[in-house]
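Incident log, structure service

09:12 report received: a user says their structure output differs between two submissions of the same chain.
09:20 pulled the input from the user's history:
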Amino acid sequence: MSTPEHKDKELEALISMLDEPDNEMFDQIRGKIFSYGPDAIPTLEDAWENAFDDLIQQRIENIIHRIQLDDLYSELHNWSRFGYADLLRGYMLLTRFQYPDLDEDKMIQKIGRISQDVWLELNQNLTALEKVKVINHILFDIHKFKGNKANIQSPDNYYLNNILDTKKGNPVSLGLIFIIIAQSLKIPVYGVDLPRHFILSYTDTYAEGTETVVEKDKVLFYINPFNKGALFTKNEIELFIKQMGLEPNDSFYQPCNNVDIIKRVGRELILVYEKAGNKEKMEELKVLLEAMDTKEP
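09:34 re-ran on a clean worker, output below:
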């Protein structure tokens, strides 16, 4: 049985051979390094800093990137099967596609501060409309979140850390922030996968003993996160669908699950990268979306 020290030396020896000129031999070396998984990354990063050969640095960068993508695929797969109730976790995982060293604790703390600000303004006597009004006030008036209408097609609009830093986003990223805040406070707000425009729904609830039961099929009203949380009705969705020339579908009105929301973010990012001509990121995202296709919750 290999000791940790032996494994470290073996990994260092493998990395020292990354200048191998024979492609077949190099593939074998790279495959053995892959087998270490994310544990290999710190040693690879140290080797990159001490390498003075462009080829070796490029090979190290490619190996690290591949390890990170494989690890992210596994985490998204597991989240979509077992952890999908935690939307923030899913959003952080997708953000790690662009920012693999994302400080997740920092993201959780920032979201937590906003949630606490909302919680301080809530009380048990508020109606559904009043609760949304509180979230809108805290999110859009106090914390100054708003739609990025000037640069709506930028991929930066989709990643959690950018949204929290700039306070600007697009309909789906602002909607995600709104849902995460609401659900952390047991407020029944869910995403609606409406084509070409992501919106939110506030669903009805009823008491069953000491438990509150959410009736997802009973939507009280809809929320537009891109327009400072403006409220609207089913009739306005019907008008939008007609204007867009879309075939009516029940899914355009009903809440969707968290996996569908994260997949929506991924699909929109694929289109953004396609317009930018970034085929590599397009293909990588398609593979990551497949990780969430294995089982629907």
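09:41 both user submissions now match this output. Likely a transient worker issue. Closing.
09:42 reviewer note: The longest strand covers residues 211-224. The chain is about 55% helix and 10% strand.
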